[in-house]
Design a protein that fits this description.
Layout lengths: L2 H20 L10 H20 L5 H5 L2
Length: about 60
């Protein structure tokens, strides 16, 4: 994992979050730990399947 990328992504997220708060715009992200863990679970599931190397290309299967 590229540490520079993670740091820059975090800084970008904090900056965008601050802008949203300053402009009093609802942030388009989960507002609770449960929501954050749901997003984390999606990411973790993707990484597990990617690591195991199973799956198929649904877009190709649908001809898109």
């Amino acid at each position: 994992m590229n540490t520079t990328f993670v740091v820059l992504a975090t800084l970008a997220g904090v900056t965008i979050g601050a802008i949203f708060a300053f402009l009093r715009i609802p942030v388009p992200a989960p507002h609770s730990l449960g929501g954050v863990m749901g997003v984390f679970g999606i990411w973790l599931g993707y990484r597990i399947i990617d690591h195991v190397g199973v799956g198929f290309d649904a877009v190709e299967y649908l001809g898109l």
